[in-house]
Design a protein that fits this description.
This protein is of the alpha/beta class and 240 residues long. It contains seven helices and ten strands. It has a five-stranded parallel sheet with strand order 3-2-4-1-5, sandwiched between helices. Strands 6-7-10-8-9 form a five-stranded mixed sheet, with helices on both faces. Strand 6, helix 6 and strand 7 form a beta-alpha-beta unit. It starts with 10 loop residues before the first strand and ends with a strand.
């Protein structure tokens, strides 16, 4: 007697945009409706992620298996390996039974997203699982729209740079590109503002926190942010 192998479910990485619930694609909406399992980043200390708040507007969560996944915020490799293995195992419990998972993520799943590592690890441990990503609007493009800022035209070059405490690297990014979007800028805000002052670019910069969401804040005079503490979801756009 022969047995037929059970087809695994598909893992979808679905970008749901930077915060405004209307900034999702028709495909994202359809897959959220169709997938029996919705996976989402879960905060350790309570509170909902943007992704979950958006999902709840479009689906009846009581009709879905809601899979909250906690992602490790550490650089300790042993902890990272253990927690990521646990996260993938949670997903595999559903995938091996043939259930599709819609993993919803803020912005785009292939741009500085937790889905990148998730997809890589699933493919490594369970290569039989189809992994498909559905693009979403990133915070970078959301900010450009909210600021009325054309990021690049013609032969202009734009860079997306994770802001870090490396003055020379940040300076080179500004020197080499017509526009630079610094993401995760809050932790080094003073350094970047000092650099902009030095390069006479402070008047070319704007800062946006929680872009397109109901909690969005915009500063067009970045000098007033010296010494301020802003939230993690903050970016700065500089256009020469």
């Amino acid at each position: 007697m022969t047995t037929t192998a059970v087809k695994t479910g598909t893992l979808y990485g679905i970008g749901v945009g930077p915060g405004d619930p209307e900034l999702i694609t028709v495909k994202a909406f359809r897959l959220m409706k169709e997938c029996p399992v919705i996976a989402y980043p879960k905060k350790r200390m309570g509170g909902k992620s943007y992704a979950l708040e958006i999902v709840e507007l479009y689906i009846n969560t009581a009709e879905k298996e809601m899979l909250g996944l906690v992602f490790p915020m550490t650089k300790v490799q042993e902890t990272l390996d253990r927690e990521w293995s646990r996260t993938v195992a949670q997903c595999w419990e559903h995938l091996k039974e043939g259930r599709d998972i819609a993993f919803v993520t803020e912005g785009d799943p292939n741009l500085y997203s937790t889905f990148i590592h998730m997809a890589r690890l699933v493919q490594e441990l369970h290569p039989e699982v189809p992994v498909i990503s559905v693009p979403g609007i990133s915070s970078v493009l959301g900010a450009a729209a909210r600021l009325g800022l054309p990021l690049a035209d013609g032969d202009e070059q734009v860079a997306i740079v994770p802001a870090r405490n490396d003055r020379q690297a940040m300076k080179k990014a500004l020197e080499d590109h017509d526009a630079v979007v610094f993401i995760k800028v809050a932790k080094v805000l003073d350094l970047i503002i000092d650099l902009l002052e030095e390069m006479e670019l402070a008047d070319k910069a704007s800062v946006v926190m929680k872009v397109t969401s109901s909690d969005e804040l915009i500063w067009r005079n970045v000098r007033e942010l010296k010494g301020q503490e802003l939230e993690y979801l903050t970016l700065m756009a500089v256009k020469k």
